[in-house]
Design a protein that fits this description.
Blueprint lengths: L16 E5 L3 H13 L3 E5 L2 H11 L3 E5 L7 H11 L4 E5 L4 H9 L4 E4 L4 H17 L9 E3 L2 E4 L4 E6 L2 E4 L4 H11 L6 E2 H8 L8 H15 L8 E3 L3 E3 L5
Parallel strand pairs: 1-2, 1-3, 3-4, 4-5
Antiparallel strand pairs: 6-7, 7-8, 8-9, 10-12, 11-12
Helix pairs in contact: 1-5, 2-3, 6-8
């Protein structure tokens, strides 16, 4: 069935649309019932690929996203959603380590709920995030990144670099743009290949060495306009943009 033809779980509801990406059917059923009881509309995705397809088709107001999804992981789904725009996302996970919470927040999650949870609390979190989004005038606009001569616009997917007082637009592929933008958000930080894969190639089945190929092509394009060694390789670890913010 085409995702656009999928009905919302309760046509009588007229509230915000919540995409519930959860592979455990019992949890999905319970959360769906609580959401509907609160006047929200809910649609269920059982895996990461379906979640990404339904997000494109339905343009939900918020996503409840489990970390451990089949097909495409919750981290990868979150990364792709952030490249697409600013749909609010609340992560659902059994993981309660600080590093996992920091990962979710760094990738752009709006909130984080640890299993086992009280469904009523999850609904309250959903409503709070929706109110906050509404008070900000709807979706938040992604800011243009300005780092070391680069100007990177996540909305228009355009990147440029100032060279000898002139700004030159970079002819980048989408993956090259995503890699550049991701590293530009923390230009001194070293990113592992696995992390870059999750953030910039979320739906790909490629191996980590594919990142090396994309980085090499990006670097060659920057060398053509006299910027050498960017992104920088960190032996045995990965890559960083390596320029002064």
């Amino acid at each position: 069935m085409d995702p656009a033809d999928l009905p919302l779980t309760d046509p009588a509801c007229t509230g915000a649309v919540v995409l519930l990406a959860e592979d455990e059917a019992e949890i999905a059923d319970i959360l769906g019932a609580y959401l509907r009881r609160s006047g929200l509309r809910a649609v269920h995705a059982a895996d990461g690929r379906q979640a990404l397809a339904l997000h494109l088709a339905l343009k939900p107001d918020l996503v409840l996203l489990d970390v451990h999804l089949p097909q495409v992981s919750g981290w990868q789904v979150l990364s792709e959603l952030r490249h697409r725009g600013d749909t609010p996302v609340i992560m659902l996970t059994a993981l309660d380590q600080d590093i996992d919470k920091l990962m979710g927040l760094r990738l752009g999650a709006d909130d984080y709920v640890v299993k086992p949870f009280n469904p009523a609390e999850v609904v309250a979190r959903v409503q709070a995030v929706l109110r906050r989004t509404a008070s900000q005038g709807g979706r938040r606009t992604q800011k243009v990144l300005r780092v070391g001569g680069f100007q990177i616009d996540p909305e228009t997917l355009e990147a440029s670099l100032e060279v000898n007082g002139e700004r030159q637009v970079l002819a980048l592929t989408l993956t090259e743009f995503n890699l550049l933008a991701h590293m530009a958000r923390a230009p001194k930080r070293v990113f592992s290949r696995a992390e870059l894969m999750a953030a910039c190639l979320p739906e790909s089945d490629a191996l980590e060495r594919t990142v090396d190929s994309h980085i090499s092509k990006l670097r060659k394009k920057l060398e053509l306009i006299s910027l050498e060694g960017v992104p920088a390789s960190v032996r045995g670890v990965g890559y960083r943009l390596g320029i002064t913010p």
